[in-house]
# Entry
Amino acid sequence: MRKIRITDQIVKQIIAVMLTVMLVVPIPVSAASDPAESVDDTTGVTIENPEDENTEEPEEEIVLEPVINRPAVSGSAISSPEVISNKAGKALDLRAMIGEGHDGYSVVQGSCTDGKYAYYMMVSSADQQGRILKVRMKDNKVMGRSQVVDVNHGNGICYDSKRNLIVSATYYDKRQRLAFFDASSLAFTGYKRVKFTYYKNAGDDSISSEDRKRGLTAIAYNATYDCYVGMESEFHDIIIYDAETLEAIGKAKTTVTAKYPAVWQSMDCDDRYVYYVLSPGSGQPYNIILCLEWHSEYLQLVRKYGRKCVEKAWTCGASADESKRNGKPSAVKRVNMPYESESLYHVTDPSTGKAHFYLSAYYGKPRYAWVKKTVTEKVKWKKVKKKVKWKKVNGKWKYKTKKVWKYKTKKVKKKVWTLTGKYRYGHVYDIGVF
# Structure
């Protein structure tokens, strides 16, 4: 066999050929076929599936700028969201769009979408009543406002695509009541109460009398199973209702309450996950989204056996093995923004199946003014003789008599710098694809 002598010149030629090949043939950045799933996509949310119950939920920070909702961009996450401004260059605000003053129906609470329009429940802090603002998503044009309705804070609303309804949870003392609006006209169509007919004698493994008593704080709708998904107000379990009859037909248990001592705001759902929105409170300083895998396929059993309930509640969790589910979120997302998050909604791109999420937020800035008020204050009255300290002699005080002012209280009218309310703003954030 003939031996080949490798010289410095041959080595240089080999290196040159290798460099040429590397420049011509691109090296894949990621195994994902969608560019939005590459490692450079910092705002896309990855749902992780821990099998071990001791696995800590990942916390991913999403840094955002305020932006009014806009159409989904091919289902991809937006890495640098832009502020949408009006002609004057100021960021659009939901309070201004609905045409309310700062003391009117100006606090954004629940929100939802039908894919073309976004709906926002705008509530008054004075009486907890509210009205719906309807906005066309492609150009942020206001399409309508509903009448004012007693929605008891309107913490969560959803779009029922089968019946073309906007459904609002009514919190506080009316937690078992839902308010219904026609999505096209925004006409209020009435109230209905959820029912627990098949849970009268249920034990701890299904819906109990305590669940009925505590009621709901938010509501979502799932079109695949034609059901309403509610957030139970105290322990934040998931209660499922048949959308036609409003009967409670299932329960998915969680263990999220103790670990997240925040303000529980609203919710959204898709076929696989329920999303809880939390804002800062009770020592928890962040806006948070909890992603809970709720195993909605169990509802197929409910449909199979009619509209009656499942006999036993199931537990949320990422594990396919029911015995390993611990009721914890599959993922926890911290949203870094300056305002208080209120509600979440999403638009699904039919071509990719990916959901594009939007988060509404509320900001209240204290408002002060000079107000003429009657106040009580001390005023000089007359001078009287009084002994006062004069000087120390051998460590002891000597006193002398001096005339000093004596005061009395008097009611006077004067202008006082007073907290008169809040400047109220409602923003919408584009938080990309989950």
Q: What stands out?
A: The radius of gyration is 31 Å. Residues 105 and 124 are 4 Å apart (CA to CA).
